[in-house]
Write a structure and sequence with these properties.
Keywords: Glycoprotein, Membrane, Transmembrane, Transmembrane helix
Structural class: alpha/beta
Membrane topology: Single-pass type I membrane protein
Shape: elongated
GO cellular component, one term: membrane
Distance between the termini: 62 Å
Helix content: 10-25%
Order of helices and strands: EHEHEEEHEEEEEHEE
Strand content: 15-25%
Subcellular location: Membrane
Main location: membrane
Length: about 250
C-alpha cells in the first residue's frame, strides 16, 4: 500500500500551498514533496496541520526553510538541488528537533551554523552530499549522538578535528569520498574505527605517511580508497599497505 502523498510543483506563492492543504480537509498524509518552485519559506503552520512525517524538496529556491518550527511529527527532511547557501540560525530555530533523517544534496551550501544539527537528538541518518561545505566541527552534531550513517561526500573539506566523532558510539558508515582530505589520523578515526562497517575515503589526496601507520593494526577491509602521495605510493589502495612501508616511522 502506497503512503499518502501531497506533491506540488511550480509554486511561487506560499498562499497557494496553504490553499492546497486546506482543500484536503482533515485528511492526514505521510509525505509532502515540492518541486521546481520559488518561495520565501515553507508555511510551517499549514504543514504542521497535516502531520507530515517526510518532507522532500527538489529544485526549490527559498530564503529560509520554515517561518517557525513545524510539527514534531516530521521525521525526514530531504532537500535536493535547492539554492541554500548556508544552514544558519534560522535553520536551527525552525526545524524540528525530532528529525531522524536529514539529507541535503546538490546544493551550494558552504556554511553550517556551529550547532546546525546538535538539537536533533534522534538523528541517525545524516547526508550532506555534493555541496560546498569546507569545515566540520564537533558542535554541529548531537552529543551524545545516535548517528549511524554520516556522509559529507563531494564537498570541499580538507581536514577534520580530532574530536569530530567523540560520543558517536553507533557510527557504522562514514563517507568523505571526493573531498580534499590529506590525512587519516588515529585521533580522528581511531576511537570509532572498530565499530565502523565502512570508512569511505575514495577521491581524497591522502598522504600515506606515518600518520596512517595506526591503521596497520586494524581490520583492513573497513577503509576504502587509495593513496594520493608520496609519489612511490600514489594510487596504491590503503588495503595494500603493510607495516614494512612504515619501518622508518618512530
Amino acid at each position: 500500500m502506497a503512503f499518502p502523498l501531497v506533491e506540488c510543483g511550480g509554486i511561487t506563492e506560499m498562499e497557494t500551498l496553504v490553499q492546497v492543504f486546506e482543500r484536503t480537509g482533515d485528511r492526514k498524509f505521510h509525505s509532502f514533496a515540492l518541486y521546481n518552485s520559488s518561495l520565501l519559506y515553507l508555511p510551517a503552520s499549514a504543514i504542521s496541520n497535516k502531520e507530515f512525517q517526510q518532507i522532500l524538496i527538489v529544485n526549490v529556491t527559498m530564503t529560509a526553510m520554515f517561518d517557525r518550527m513545524p510539527d514534531p511529527s516530521n521525521k525526514v527532511v530531504s532537500i535536493t538541488a535547492t539554492a541554500i547557501k548556508s544552514l544558519s540560525k534560522s535553520f536551527v530555530d525552525n526545524i524540528s528537533d525530532k528529525v531522524q533523517r536529514f539529507h541535503l544534496f546538490d546544493s551550494p551550501v558552504r556554511k553550517l551554523q556551529y550547532n546546525a544539527f546538535s538539537h536533533m537528538t534522534d538523528l541517525y541518518d545524516l547526508r550532506v552530499d555534493n555541496c560546498a561545505v569546507k569545515l566540520l566541527r564537533r558542535s554541529l552534531f548531537p552529543n551524545p549522538s545516535k548517528i549511524t550513517d554520516f556522509s559529507f561526500q563531494n564537498n570541499g573539506i580538507d581536514s577534520l578535528p580530532d574530536d569530530l566523532f567523540t560520543n558517536m558510539p553507533k557510527l557504522q558508515y562514514v563517507d568523505f569520498s571526493d573531498n580534499k582530505i590529506t590525512q587519516i589520523t588515529e585521533p580522528v578515526f581511531g576511537g570509532v574505527y572498530n565499530t565502523l562497517k565502512v570508512l569511505q575515503m575514495e577521491g581524497n589526496p591522502v598522504i600515506c605517511d606515518c600518520s596512517i601507520r595506526w591503521y596497520m593494526s586494524r581490520y583492513r577491509g573497513t577503509l576504502k580508497g587509495n593513496c594520493g602521495a608520496p609519489e612511490d605510493r600514489q594510487g596504491r589502495s590503503f588495503q595494500s599497505l603493510t607495516a614494512k612501508d612504515f619501518t622508518y616511522c618512530n
